[in-house]
Amino acid sequence: MNPTQFTFSVAFMLGLAGLAFHRTHLLSALLCLEGMMLSLFLALSLWTLELNSTSFSASPMILLAFSACEASTGLALLVATARTHGTDRMQSLNLLQC
């Protein structure tokens, strides 16, 4: 494993660890998800450049489009949660309570 692959895998694992162990606020969970998507985007972009293939060149852009959709949906949920519950703490959110 070369150093760039190691760097992106460590960045992805740090985002995953932050998502798993630091779930106090919804905003911090969304930021961890964005960090994971950014490391995936950069790794996929560099992988496409290393292969010198045009067949995989659309993959990073598709991932970036899905990441933008995920970010906008997450922010919309954050705003809706802050309006209805008054906070974005994950402990105050209950799926069984409407």
From TrEMBL:
Cellular component annotations (GO), alphabetically ordered: mitochondrial inner membrane; NADH dehydrogenase complex; respiratory chain complex; transmembrane transporter complex
| Catalyses which reaction(s) | a ubiquinone + NADH + 5 H(+)(in) = a ubiquinol + NAD(+) + 4 H(+)(out)
What membrane topology is annotated for this entry? Multi-pass membrane protein
Location comes to: Mitochondrion inner membrane; Mitochondrion membrane
Q: Does the keyword Mitochondrion apply?
A: yes
Q: Which UniProt keywords apply?
A: Electron transport, Membrane, Mitochondrion, Mitochondrion inner membrane, NAD, Respiratory chain, Translocase, Transmembrane, Transmembrane helix, Transport, Ubiquinone
The record, for InterPro entries, names: NADH_UbQ_OxRdtase_chain4L/K (IPR001133), NUOK/Mnh_C1-like (IPR039428)
A single Gene Ontology MF term assigned here is: NADH dehydrogenase (ubiquinone) activity
- What is the first-listed, main subcellular location in coarse terms? mitochondrion
Which biological process, per GO, is one annotated for this protein?
ATP synthesis coupled electron transport
Q: Which top EC class is given? A: translocase
The UniProt entry, under Pfam families, shows: Oxidored_q2 (PF00420)
Q: Where are the transmembrane segments?
A: 6-22, 29-49, 61-82
Enzyme nomenclature, EC number: 7.1.1.2
As for what it does, the entry says: Core subunit of the mitochondrial membrane respiratory chain NADH dehydrogenase (Complex I) which catalyzes electron transfer from NADH through the respiratory chain, using ubiquinone as an electron acceptor. Part of the enzyme membrane arm which is embedded in the lipid bilayer and involved in proton translocation.
Which family is this protein grouped under? Belongs to the complex I subunit 4L family.
Query: What protein is this chain from?
Result: NADH-ubiquinone oxidoreductase chain 4L
Species source reads Perccottus glenii (Chinese sleeper)
Gene label: ND4L
